[in-house]
Specification:
The chain is an alpha+beta fold. It has a domain at about 20-50. The chain has 1 helix and 3 strands, in the order H-E-E-E. A 3-stranded antiparallel sheet has the order 1-2-3, with no helix packed on it. The longest helix has 8 residues, at about 5-10.
């Protein structure tokens, strides 16, 4: 994670944020706004959709 230690600590300790290491965004889903995100794990190549 490229951020100051203080900012990393804030993000990692925020309950409504899930940090997904080794993942890449493949697609942003939604027509008139963001409804979900499709990500792929860079190690296992498993795809997952978050709505």
């Amino acid at each position: 994670m490229r951020a100051s230690k203080a900012m990393q600590h804030r993000v990692l300790n925020t309950p409504n944020i899930e940090v997904m290491f080794n993942h890449e965004t493949v697609e942003i889903l939604g027509d008139k706004g963001v409804n979900g995100v499709k990500v792929v794990n860079n190690i296992s190549k498993e795809e997952k959709v978050w709505m």
